[in-house]
User: Which sequence fits this backbone?
């Protein structure tokens, strides 16, 4: 039974094994997503303390509270719950992940990088606050992210927080976002093969999505077996997410996307549709999502019959069905 959710996509309201488990296994993904999103929005709103000067606080808040799908924090919360933890335990880290993501969007939009005017349906940070302030707002969000984990995560054992700091560092730095961005910029205007394209996206986009699910699970003290399943899940959704992003860049409007559509073509970037065509790109995204979901099959149903992995399974489907 499809349901339209409040962020503009059609979600399947389904359990992970609805065919065999019957009506009791139905999971209302639209309701789940909206409730989690509202909790994340409230936590984000409360996360920026009395930053001084006010101009810095305004620039940080402008981008952090500009909307967006909040997919990364929701993935973190869902992974924590799958591993037996609570939303309260994971929320500071979920906020931290959205801060890192927002920082990367602010910096990506700068004239020295992708040079864009529109993000999340509004003028980009540097268009409103100037380039220097946009860089500094990004820097402040990045460092505040680590503060959220290290100093504002009550009730989580210190060694688990240390592991989360490790994942966040790997995802943000040269082994993740920064490395992927550098290769992406170096490849502009060049012919890029599928292997290099995959490298770019596993680092630029995939690394942070991986950190989201791993850190959520680490907070709850997940087993190595579950962490390994989540690494496979994250690889699948990370690449699928980017393939869909590439497809939407050519098929959706700037109005719906909230960012400039057709950007990859004008920046002469290699994309999945350019290498594989639209149809094969979509098939590849579907196959990656199927792989991601298969990795979580052993965790689909808890001993108590609860649909433990339902949110992560539905989030994987959402990645390919989203329209923005
Ligand atoms: C300074 C440490 C440091 C890193 C910056 C700029 C940069 C390095 C990396 C660029 C990373 C980047 C912008 C990747 C694109 C990821 C992507 C597909 C973003 C869109 O994500 P959505 O669709 O956006 O989830 P919303 O707005 O919904 O959150």
Assistant:
């Amino acid at each position: 039974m499809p349901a339209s959710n409040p962020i503009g996509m059609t979600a399947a309201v389904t359990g992970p094994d609805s065919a065999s488990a019957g009506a009791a296994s139905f999971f209302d993904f639209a309701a789940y997503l909206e409730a989690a999103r509202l909790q994340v929005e409230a936590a984000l709103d409360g996360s920026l303390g009395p930053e001084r000067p006010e101009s810095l606080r305004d620039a940080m808040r402008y981008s952090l509270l500009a909307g967006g799908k909040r997919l990364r924090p929701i993935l973190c919360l869902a992974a924590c719950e799958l591993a037996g933890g609570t939303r309260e335990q994971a929320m500071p880290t979920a906020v931290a992940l959205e801060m890192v993501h927002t920082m990367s969007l602010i910096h990506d939009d700068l004239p020295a990088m992708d040079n864009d005017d529109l993000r999340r349906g509004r003028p980009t940070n540097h268009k409103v606050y100037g380039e220097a302030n946009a860089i500094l707002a990004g820097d402040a969000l990045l460092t505040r992210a680590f503060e959220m984990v290290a100093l504002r995560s009550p009730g989580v054992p210190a060694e688990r927080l240390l592991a989360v700091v490790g994942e966040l560092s790997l995802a943000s730095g040269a082994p993740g976002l920064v490395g992927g961005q550098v290769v992406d910029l170096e490849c502009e205007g060049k012919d890029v093969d599928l292997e290099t394209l995959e490298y770019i996206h596993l680092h630029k986009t995939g690394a942070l999505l991986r950190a989201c699910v791993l850190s959520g699970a680490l907070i709850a003290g997940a087993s190595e077996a579950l962490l390994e399943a989540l690494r496979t899940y994250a690889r699948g959704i990370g690449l699928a997410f980017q393939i869909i992003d590439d497809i939407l860049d050519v098929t959706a409007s700037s109005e719906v996307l909230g960012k400039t559509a057709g950007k990859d073509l004008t920046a002469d970037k290699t994309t999945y549709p350019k290498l594989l065509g639209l149809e094969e790109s979509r098939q590849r995204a579907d196959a990656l999502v199927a792989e991601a979901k298969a990795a979580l099959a052993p965790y689909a149903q808890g001993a108590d019959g609860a649909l433990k992995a339902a949110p992560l399974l539905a989030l994987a489907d959402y990645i390919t069905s989203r329209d923005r």
About this structure: The two ends are 22 Å apart (CA to CA).
